[in-house]
Amino acid sequence: MEIMTDQRFRKTMKYLRAILIISLIGMALTVVMIGGILVYAKILGPPPLAVPQSTLFFADDGTVIGESHNGQKRYWAPLEDISPHLINATVSIEDKNFFEHNGFDYKRIAGAALADIKAMAKVQGASTISQQYARNLFLEHEKTWKRKILEAFYTIRLEMNYTKKEILEGYLNTIYYGNGAYGAQAASHFYFGKDAIDLTLAEAAILSGIPKGPGIYSPFASAEKANLRQKVILQTMVKNGMISQKEADQAVAEELKLVGEHLHPKTKTAPYFQDAVRNALKTQLKLDERTIELGGLKVYTTLNLKEQEIAEETVSKLMSRDSEIQVGFVAMNPKNGYVKAMVGGRNYEESPFNRAIQAVRQPGSTIKPLLYYAALEQGFTPSTPIRSEQTTFRFEDGTPDYTPHNFNSKYADDEITMAQALALSDNVYAVKTHLFLGEETLVNTAKKFGITSKMAKVPSLALGTSGVRVIELANAYSMFANGGKKVSPVMIKRVENHKGDVIYQQEPFQMKVLRTDLAFVMTHMMTGIFDPKLNGYARVTGSTVINDMTRPYAGKSGSTETDSWMAGFTPQLVTAVWTGYDKGQMITNTVEKTYAKNIWIRFMEEAHKGKPSKAFKAPEGTVGVYVDPANGKIAADNCPVKRLTYFTEGTEPTEYCTDHLSHEQEKKPEQSDKKPKTPWYKKLFQWAS
């Protein structure tokens, strides 16, 4: 009997030892496995916390003008910008031990398991805030073992690599509050029309109850259930020592004002400009489409809301609704290239094609200031005379004969100065100058002025037959206005990522590409299109808007059969306007031919209201001389018209005008055996007569 008992004892001990060994091995394997998981999690490092967020676009005064539209409203708010009431309410109802556990609340898990067993169904959740955040970031909400295992692994990685504050901040910025609102900031504005930092206790208790079931506990879904959920949360906060019972009762009694409108509804502010900004983010900053739309960027632009509104209203008021003629408009700050206003067409919904930056159209005579600047570099002056008469140019290289025509076929049939040729837009003077300089000169000069559109080396280039973009012309004229500094169109000043880190900052640059003296001389010549003193065989081309002007402007108009242009500037602002038909239809209506000039002057006058009237200041190296506009010589007392004209010092005229002396005042020329000397310009252009 004793032997049998001893055998049983030894057998039992054998089993126990086996169980112990297996348990130890199992524990060791478990420790190794857990250790391996932890080591692997550490090796992988912190998981990325980037989540889809709305990208916001700001005007130059910080006003939001638009956002990316993906059907979800997401705005990241730092934890310090979220109401403590919402933080406490969320922690109290979702995970009261959040700051104590390491990502998993084992006591809560056990309690939830017992509750589920008793009910024979899933009745209680046990996910911590860390687990929910991991799920929101990386996983679908499917109920599978694979998802649960991955959720646990991501939770470990989050807890190992981020602080509790970072996890809580991320959770509050990613949780779904219903009605397309993700995160506390978007939800606060949708439900209560305020920032998350300004939420009251009552409002916070309502919001923190929604994520459990947005379709059930949203006050817009069921006010009754939302209020019941609010009371539960407030009592939980009392129980957890976060608030007093009195505070809870006051919160329940508080009357809430619901808004039901998102912070930034889909806006139509400057839609063409916004498209251009998006394109710049892709082409200049090399950002991909997903980052632009879902990266939570803050894009600070150069748009001036007041000037944009003036531009849009001006176009709307002046252009007939019965006409299909289109418009391209750009206003820029010439000092830094900041685009202040842009209109790419008359109706964005009907046609998002941006005529301000995409359309390439013939600029007509607006190209002439660039040509004449090149001529100034080659020794021409505002007083340089060339004969204006109908001229046919013949070429020995086989190029077809070319006969440019002035408007209405009017010519001086005499010599005119460069200043007057620009003011009257004399085409013969322009083509003669162009051919004298060489056809490649204007091509190269256009590049210097920032024009990238292809220029054809042909005689008619002087009359603007090679297309340019509106924004290119505005940029080119900016270089006259700023004294010759290189600028490029700028629409984005700064870009921040969802964390507020600056990922792009526009850097100003100051590089001289034009001679300051010649830029000013050209600018002053461009004021001539508004000066009746330069009237000659025709009126100056800006005569129709002179009566609307209240300050000095410089500019140039231009027209072809299919295009109408006006571009000009003050020291503060440059604006270029194009009007025409998309398919190149001829502009025959007299009123339609005036749209560009009228839009330009109305905009400039309105945009400058309240701003000081600034004159164009003559820089060192220039000298102003009163000349007779008809011949460019120094005006004498008898000259009926005198106009102050600027020259580079040393190139001003030295000969006095004698055209208006009386017979008695005229001096007899001295007899001489020498033949009269032919002026250089007459020799140069005899072949073109």
Automatic annotation (TrEMBL):
UniProt keyword Glycosyltransferase, yes or no: yes
GO molecular function annotation: penicillin binding; peptidoglycan glycosyltransferase activity; serine-type D-Ala-D-Ala carboxypeptidase activity
Cross-referenced InterPro entries: Beta-lactam/transpept-like, Glyco_trans_51, Glycosyltr_51/Transpeptidase, Lysozyme-like_dom_sf, PBP_transglycosylase, PCN-bd_Tpept
Family: In the C-terminal section; belongs to the transpeptidase family. In the N-terminal section; belongs to the glycosyltransferase 51 family.
Descriptive protein name: 1A family penicillin-binding protein
Gene Ontology terms: cellular component: outer membrane-bounded periplasmic space; plasma membrane
Classification via PANTHER family: BINDING PROTEIN TRANSPEPTIDASE, PUTATIVE-RELATED, PENICILLIN-BINDING PROTEIN 1B
Transmembrane domains' residue ranges: 20-41
Keyword Cytoplasm part of the UniProt annotation: no
Organism: Cytobacillus oceanisediminis
One Pfam family cited in the UniProt record for this chain: Transpeptidase
Glycosyl transferase family domain residues: 62-237
Catalytic activity: Preferential cleavage: (Ac)2-L-Lys-D-Ala-|-D-Ala. Also transpeptidation of peptidyl-alanyl moieties that are N-acyl substituents of D-alanine; [GlcNAc-(1->4)-Mur2Ac(oyl-L-Ala-gamma-D-Glu-L-Lys-D-Ala-D-Ala)](n)-di-trans,octa-cis-undecaprenyl diphosphate + beta-D-GlcNAc-(1->4)-Mur2Ac(oyl-L-Ala-gamma-D-Glu-L-Lys-D-Ala-D-Ala)-di-trans,octa-cis-undecaprenyl diphosphate = [GlcNAc-(1->4)-Mur2Ac(oyl-L-Ala-gamma-D-Glu-L-Lys-D-Ala-D-Ala)](n+1)-di-trans,octa-cis-undecaprenyl diphosphate + di-trans,octa-cis-undecaprenyl diphosphate + H(+)
UniProt entry keywords in alphabetical sequence: Carboxypeptidase, Cell membrane, Cell shape, Cell wall biogenesis/degradation, Glycosyltransferase, Hydrolase, Membrane, Multifunctional enzyme, Peptidoglycan synthesis, Protease, Transferase, Transmembrane, Transmembrane helix
